[in-house]
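Predict the 3D structure for this chain.
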Amino acid sequence: MYTLKNKMPEIEGKSKKIFKLNENTYFMCFKPHLRSITSKREENIKGTDHQRLIANMYFMNLLESKGIRTQIKDTKIQKIDGEEGILVKKVKTIPLEFICRYYAAGSIVRLYPSLVKEGQKFKTPLYKFDLKQDIKVAGVDDPTLNENYIIGLELLTQEEFEKAKNVLAQVGEIIRENLEKADMKLIDMKMELGFDEEGNIVVIDEISQDCIRANDIQTGKSLTKDSFRQLKNDEEVLNAYIEFNKRLQIK
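Done. Predicted structure below.
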C-alpha cells in the first residue's frame, strides 16, 4: 500500500510532479499547466491534466503491446491519497527531446521559410534532437543538437544514439498509424527517452496532446496543443483535448 502522506515531490515542474514511493517506484501526477513561448501564452486550464493523463496511459500501454519498452510500472491509472497518477519505474533520463516530423509546422516553418511551406508533407520523416534546457539558461529554449554534438559531448554513445533513433522511428510510426485510424493526421511529435536499471532504452515522461501535433484529417482543425498556441479560449482548448481522446476511445 502506497501513501503520499508526509511526502514532498521528488521532482516538480510546471506540468508534472513526481513522488518517490520506494527505491524503484515513483508516482507521476499531471498538472493543468500549458505554455507556449512562441505564442507568449502560459496558463492553467483545468481538466487538461486529466485528459493528458489518460492519453499518456493509453499510449504507453499501446507501445508496450508493440514491444516498445516504457517507464510505466502498472497498466492502470492509480489514485493515492486523493492524487491521480501513474506508477513509473526508476530511470536515468537522457537530457534530450526526440522529435519526428511528418509535415511542416511550427519552428521548422519559421526557421526555414526558403526550404519548407506550412503543411508540406515530407517524403520521409525528419528527426530532430533538442537539448532539454530552459530558456532562462541561455536565452534559447531547448537548443537543437546534431548527432556529432550528442556523441562528442558524451550524451550518448554511437550505439546508444542509433538505438534511440530507432525507438523514435518506431514510436512515430505506431502513433501515426493509430491516429490515422481515428481520422487524425500526425503532424509531428516529441518524446523523451531514458535508460532503465538494466540499461535498456525506454520511453519515459509523457505522450499526450501536449507533445503531439495532430489535426482532423478533413478540416485541419487542431485537436492537440496547437489549439492553445492558436490562442483558442480555455473551453476550446479543453474540448480539443477531450475530442482527441474521444476519437481514440480513451476513457
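The chain has a mean pLDDT of 96.
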